[in-house]
DNA sequence: TTGACAAATGACTTATTAGTCATTATTATA
DNA sequence: TATAATAATGACTAATAAGTCATTTGTCAA
């Protein structure tokens, strides 16, 4: 166990300096003063080490933030506390934060992507609950959009101090972000991300979605929908998926029927893709 | 020349799908239907291909944006035009945009970092001139900060449609960003990034800065400064660097004297680092 | 048709790295 | 102290990939 921790610490340092890909296991073990074989007694593979690192730190960071948010009674301080805790955590684990931000878009390892996605969703959940608590009904239509604004601003400023070694006045940064968040929350009238978009993004598109998955999705949506036009269009589209009988023009028309309904956005997008590729 | 273009096109596709690191030259040449040797007749190395790609597309993207900004007479449309052109360009060159966003933080190739940094600065310059034109004097103290807000928001939303294949209503996105930008520009009172920070970030810190470089920097700043307290403190600190004579307490005090002066922020940070490491 | 030149090839060299496993060292136990 | 069990080693294998160069193929003018 102690060996495992040693490897994780040293690897983290090297990863942050050189990147994960560019750091061979041999270098990690040299840096630890152990043999290569010893590494594989602690971790089945290099990938397992990476996953372990992400879990270890993300759990800490998320737990810190979650704890602070849940234990801040005073709403006036809440936003400031949130930002402060987050940046404090990023700073404390800056080596990890660097890796995480880098691999967020870079990685092609399936398991890693899933992991990163998972923690990203957790963060979004925290931000959303924070927004709801602070602004309540007022942001009903803009809250999902606001999440992406907050994430964008946090990313921009994090990158600044993580990758430029710029001196950081954390208090000022948090004050500044609190002001910006309040501004955006109270005055935004044209949100880009709607509740439906947000739902969509929870199920990120696989490279290929099968016909069966689309059918299943249609069946579920049909139940939730009242409007007869959209409902009938959906049912026809489903039948056409099971056994193609309709002409392209009719299909296109049906797609047009459902495209504007908020619950059908995702499905209509998938169907457009499906028929375009076919 | 045509061969070069073929390679660039095909490589771009593969890079966007799999990442640069994960795409061997052999795969590129197979995909082009040429031999490995032929690749090396067009490009001296894989790195040269990457640089060529970045130059090719960044020049196009920046030129597009710059042209639109310069040729939009009506200020009311300017911001919208800027966002629209940018996202249009990103969409048009989405394979490249993906690579660029990924490698922005990931890359460890020195030449690549310099390239990316260069184009990033160009973008910042365009954004700055746009802000100055639109808001003028009103944002004198917040304009540098505003750049990072805009970049953050743009990044956040770009990642969304680049990596999630989300369907994009570009008009709505741009409207939304115009509103947000106007909000932030007209109401921000607590900027985080000041003019001085912005200057600093232009010269990103090397891993190690030598004593000589700090001395040189102090000499230059001394000339620009009027205030006697800061000026004298700087001179004493310089002498102490040349030949250490002062006690740690005195040095600390002198650093405290200069730390708040806007022109000394950078130097005081470097000195803090310097004495901490020593 | 031929010879000279250029273009293209792909087997080969060199280098790197993840992961293995027979061997050795260490520790615990009787 | 002897023996068994456990931990650690690092030379080795297999795989991958960048870049080279002797050889082949194609082109075109004489």
TrEMBL record, chains A, B:
GO molecular function, one example?
Answer: DNA binding
As annotated, the DNA-binding region falls at: 24-43
Residues of the HTH tetR-type domain: 1-61
Q: Which InterPro entries match?
A: Homeodomain-like_sf, HTH-type_Tx_Regulator, HTH_TetR
Q: Which SUPFAM superfamilies match?
A: Homeodomain-like (SSF46689)
User: Which Pfam families does its entry note?
Assistant: TetR_N (PF00440)
UniProt keywords, alphabetically: DNA-binding, Repressor
Q: Could you identify this protein by its name?
A: TetR/AcrR family transcriptional regulator
